[in-house]
Amino acid sequence: MPVISYREALRAAMREELKRDDKVVLMGEEIAQFNGAYKVTEGLLKEFGPKRVVDTPISEAGFIGLGIGASMLGIRPVMELMFWSFSYVAFDQIVNNAGNIRYMSGGLIHCPIVIRGPANGGTNVGATHSHTPEAILASHPGIKVVCPATPYDAKGLLKAAIRDNDPVYVMENTILYNDKGEVPDEDYIVPLGVADVKREGTDLTMVAHGRAVITSLKAAAVLEKEHGVSVEVIDLRSIRPLDEETILASVRKTHRALLVEENKPFCGVDAQVAYLIQSKAFDELDAPIHRVSSIDAPQIYSKRLEDQQLPDVSRVVRESLKVLA
Amino acid sequence: MAEIIDMPKLSDTMSVGTLVKWNIKQGQTVAFGDILGEVETDKATMELSCIVPGTILKIYAPAGSQLPVGAPICAIGKKGEAAPEPSAAPAPKAAAPATAVPAIPDKTDVSCLPAAPASSGSVAPQSDASRAKASPYAKRMAAQAALNVAALSGTGPGGRVVGRDVAAAASAPAVAAPTGPLNVAVAPPADGKGIQPDADIPVGGMRQTIARRLLESKVTVPHFYLEVEVDAAPLMAMRESLNKRLADSGADAIKLSVNDFILKASAEALRRVPAVNASWAGTSIRQHGAVHLSFGVALEDGLVTPVIRDAHAKTLKDIAVEAKALIGKARSKKLTPNEMSGSTFTVTNLGMYGVTGFFGIINVPNAAILSVGATIKKPVVDAQDRLVIGHRMVIGLSGDHRVVDGANGAQFLQTLKRLLEEPGLMLI
User: Fold this and answer.
1) What is the pLDDT of residues A30-88, one digit of tens each?
2) Inside any domain, residue B378
3) Based on the structure, what is the number of domains in chain B?
4) Could you tell me the domains of chain A?
5) A253 touches chain B (CB under 8 A)
6) Domain span at residue B162?
7) Residues B136 and B94 reside in one and the same domain
8) Which residues in chain B are contacts of A286 at CB distance < 8 A?
9) Largest CB tally within 10 Å, which of B16, B91, B188, B260?
10) A interface mutation test: which of B9, B133, B135, B139 has the most A CBs within 10 A?
11) Which residue in A has a C-alpha nearest to residue B154's C-alpha?
């Protein structure tokens, strides 16, 4: 099976969908002539031409609104945000318009839009460029949110998102763009709302999404080697819809849970997951649920401090041992 | 819509129930409150009353079968409706759509219903015995294994009882006492007519509970033993005189037993030495404000320990009446789980069999058990150094050394001895 990067996997997903369905259109800042700020859309203008791969003005409220309108009339736009941090200037479009139109039209109007781009800290770009809005957006009924952690899931989730008839927001991670993994050449999708057991174990369940999955897998290896602990790592992949059963089945097996995310802790995704576990698997718990999140402060600009702010292997190991006490 | 009735959970420790009998047949119409059948738990036989009126569509479990809590036992629905297929592996669950009621208490039983703990005269502040620090998973495991979480010592943070502690406790007795069939070949009676046929007798719910709880106590609780001999003559004299007076009064003639006096004296001794009225709780010692007094009642096929609640606040007559009612219910197997749980101290008595002295196994989570022997006549040297005929009774105390030390155990026995030898002291 070919080994390609997370970036190439995203590009493959878009290329395959552009070929499969002539209603699919890419739009975003500098995605066409400049090949994308992070080169995810590299070469696609040349291959598909300026009617399918469109550069937009630097106005998120404007071009996201344009994409939403187009999607209501049957186009399947895949919009790139240079950073998900910039979604905040298009919040009305993203949440109010895209998220509610199917409900408010009584199911008559669909909004099959995909918005994708990086949503992560850890790259020394400051507080205004490091937001992780998956919890904020997933809190709105009508919106679907996915966070791929591996090249395989990046391709499969993006293709599933493009084919879905509701707004799906795909949150990528610039630190993962160069990560490589096995990705099939052929057409496949990773269904929305299905979590993945990335590592099987018996003593502790780690629940993570996005890059926190990679951190968790590294921590699980350390825990096994240095502490003889068998850790199961669940990759949520999809924040909403949320695969409750895979989480609960794992907790029923291990009876202990550590939730890891790069979000800020307050009202984070894992606040919801912790609630889920205690409400549906209370009698399975042998220890309180712990969380490892980013430290609760605006994203720190100093690189050294920012490295401490994000969950790292040593913090995940340390917190795991507390849950295992 | 047909409803499946599950094996209900009728006591804290129940994990399996035996369907003793069915009162109903397939196809029969049942109304709310009808008694569907009887279920034997590890503690008592209870009636199963119907809370879903309709037609019995199917009986999944025949009389005599043993089933885990939550297993389907029958289905009730509309006449002619198809009986639902129960799921293959029913998960044990606490909520069952049927309730069991203790078999019809008659009016005289009212006095032995558990009363709220009396506040006056309590020897120590009331604390809640159900607040053992344990993880939800450990509690669920313990309930399934019929273990008492409060009796386990926790290895989790702050002494919390966690899953591994319950797993260890559940497997420990199995190591200590192999439960498999006896492999030693025993020759049958040579003459072909032994005293009884060779047979393996299946172990019922009560016998299993006795086996498990007493083994757990004996291997996990550090027992120590104290013994004292009591001059029983004053007690015998008082009993005779009181019984004579009670008989004369006619009406509700009750007769006080020696055991009634010992129960009363024990409650009074616990008031004076409250350190014995306590339980080991892992990282703390839980002292109990009320004396809930349990006593052993021998049955043909085992032993039960009903509880007289708030014995510290009851008169000798109250205790005698209540003990008699509980013994009656015990013999007819009509004690409810509630009437057999929550004790703080236990009294056992083998005096009626002529046993002169023995030591009981502690009834966890009690801190001690009192064993009472027979009153026998024997020569004693009195205060004036004369050899006289004495009426002597030996009482023994088995104590949990984690809670009670030799000195306060001895103090308790000394106090009890004084109360029995000068029974008038019980009045003050």
Assistant:
1) 999 999 999 999 999 999 999 999 999 999 999 999 999 999 999 999 999 999 999 99
2) yes
3) 3
4) 3-182 (3.40.50.970), 196-323 (3.40.50.920)
5) no
6) 131-172
7) no
8) 135-138, 156, 162-163
9) B260
10) B135
11) A325
Alpha-carbon distance of B297 to B299, in angstroms, equals 6
**Is B156–A287 a contact, with Cβ atoms under 8 angstroms apart?**
yes
Residue B348 resides in a domain: yes
More confident residue, B127 or B301: B301
Is A80 annotated as catalytic? no
The pTM for the full model equals 0.54
> Residue B136 and residue A285: Cβ atoms within 8 Å?
yes
Domain end, chosen from B88, B104, B120, is at B104
pLDDT digits 0-9 by tens, B44-85: 788 888 878 888 988 888 888 888 888 888 888 888 888 888
Looking up tokens 């590294």 gives A218
- Interface check B135 vs A, CB under 8 A: yes
- What type of residue sits at position A166? D
Give a yes or no: residue B120 inside a domain.
Answer: no
Cβ-based neighbours of B225, under 8 Å, separated by 6 or more: B359, B396, B397, B398, B399
Residues 6+ apart with CB under 8 A from B142: B134, B148, B149, B152, B161, B166
The residue type found at A106 is: G
Q: Tens digit of pLDDT for each residue in B180-197?
A: 445 556 787 888 788 888
Nearest by Cα to B150 from B365, B402, B426: B365
User: Is A283 in contact with B157 (Cβ distance < 8 A)?
Assistant: no
ipTM above 0.95, yes or no: no
B321 and B251 together in one domain: yes
**Contact (Cβ atoms closer than 8 angstroms) between residue A18 and residue A48:** yes
A312 touches chain B (CB under 8 A): no
Give the phi and the psi of residue B251 in degrees, each rounded to 5. 20, -110
Domain-located, residue B268 = yes
